[in-house]
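thought: fold this chain, then report.
action: predict
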Amino acid sequence: MRIRQDTTMTTPDTPQVPAGSTDPGRRKLLIATASVIGAAGLVAAGIPFIDSWWPSERAQAAGAPVQIDASKLEPGQQLTVAWRGRPVWVLRRTPEMLQRMHTPQHLQRLRDPDSSVESQQPSYARNEFRSIHKEHLVVIGICTHLGCVPAFRPEVAPADLGADWIGGYFCPCHGSRFDLAGRVFVQVPAPTNLVIPPYHYLSDTLIEVGVDSELT
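observation:
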């Protein structure tokens, strides 16, 4: 009688796995590994597609136009939007504000009352109001001295700015002053008026910053 000898060695700590079956723990590990690899492949494949959702660096540098609904502004109020990474102010000026800006006494305190420095505004804003429509001022809110952001100070004759202050913008960094048309005062560090960006009107109160009025 021939006796078959089993050469497989077992110990009490070694679990017996039937032939043709797979260890459940190992099976879970294989499934998890395959899932991770598959997910990584999907992510890698999706990166070019996701990148295509974002504007190109050239487009971001150019700066997309920004639309502003000025109808939401009450007289004397100002709002701020971002354009090309800079603050742009839209101020709805009152008749009283406009009148105070053009008295002989006030004009004598300005360095460039006639906007003679052409680079500071488009040609259509080279007027007494520095705007297309006198009611709305559209201006970049960055001081032309060292790039600080001036504070909007519309009040008249506040104690800290003096009896001659008729409303405007005050730069807290070095004391530069601008009126409500963004015109710089004499004897302050800022050399030029605030910059007027290119803009145009899509309607009576809808303003688009970043598109030149002369090109529309």
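thought: worth noting. Residues 23-54 form one domain.
final: tokens above.
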